[in-house]
Amino acid sequence: MSSTRFFFHAAFLGTYYRGWQRQSNAGSVQEVVERVFSEILKEPISVMGCGRTDAQVHASQFYFHADLSQPLHADFLFRLNKVLPPDIAVYEIIPVADNQHARFDAIQRQYDYFMHTYKDPFLNPVSTLLEPRPWQVDKMKQAVTLLTRYDDYRAFCKSPNIYQHTRCRITAANLWMNATGDRLRFQISADRFLGRMVRLLVGKLIGIGSGTLSVNEFESYFIEKNTPARWDPAYPQGLFLSNVNYPYLKQPARTDFDTVHHTASWIPL
Question: Vertex 225, ends 198 and 269: CA angle to 5°?
């Protein structure tokens, strides 16, 4: 029986999941999506995501594809979102060619990491709480500007030896602060990311901001390509996969971070 491949433009809040990818011993977003699809379409359905995420990491833009052997009715998107739990949403269903792949065809991914310096029960699930202190944001910014100058991120990969190489082309890296100076936002875009790479980078940026790591020490990781003696990845809840681009598909995420994070604007540093 012939099938049609569809891309699904989605988003999820990862708080109660062990990441996107299906696991044998823990609940995942993929598992929930496949179960709901199978219930609605009355046949086993498997889906392929655009990447993996760690436990408790979110995605404000995520794509997955599925090959479906039956036509989708006009109300399928509504029915799908009605059955999916509140922390998973599908925004669009996009027919694509049979050889287009949600994971392997992605040419750029973007991550955002959010931090705040005061306890807020509405921010805590989607941002990382930092100690309230005078943060050296100027030095953090200096470190961020280094990211586009280097392309080997071996020192910021939990298991570098599982990859053929650890080169990543960073196309943009930025740091923002909100108007009141009590929240920070780090954003990075690249052609690929290694395991735990963003959280390990942010962990070192936090060390720079707190004064426990110098910018020169940070740069030495790129120069010497040695993994740190101590792993200190930033907490997962502040991390969002926020944009995924394809040669044939590029569109903004539906999530408005100013609404999610209760701020009117972010000021570039």
Answer: 45
| Three-class SS state of 8 | strand
For the chain, give every domain's residue range: 4-96, 108-268
Q: Are strands 183-190 and 170-178 parallel, antiparallel or unpaired?
A: antiparallel
Structure tokens at 30: 């993929």
DSSP string, 67-86: EESSPPPTTHHHHHHHHS-T
Query: How far apart are the C-alpha atoms of 260 and 130, rounded to whole Å?
Result: 18
Q: Contact at 8 Å (CB) between 195 and 231? A: no
> pTM of this prediction?
0.94
In DSSP terms, 246 is beta-bridged to 249
Domain 108-268 fold is Alpha-Beta Plaits (3.30.70)
Closest CA to 57 of 217, 235, 227: 235
- What is the predicted pLDDT for the residue at 257? 76
- What CATH number belongs to 4-96? 3.30.70.580
Same topology between domain 4-96 and domain 108-268 = yes
pLDDT band at 232 (very low <50, low <70, confident <90, very high): confident
Asked whether the beta carbons of 115 and 184 are under 8 A apart, the reply is: yes
Secondary structure letter of residue 227 according to DSSP: P
Q: Identity (one letter) of the amino acid at 14? A: G
- Going 126 to 256 to 60 to 109, the CA torsion angle's sign is negative
**DSSP state, residue 170:** E
Residues serving a catalytic function are 54
Q: What is the pLDDT of residues 124-164, one digit of tens each?
A: 999 999 988 889 999 999 999 999 999 999 999 988 888 99
Report helix, strand or coil for 43: coil
Of the chain, the percentage scoring pLDDT greater than 70 comes to: 99
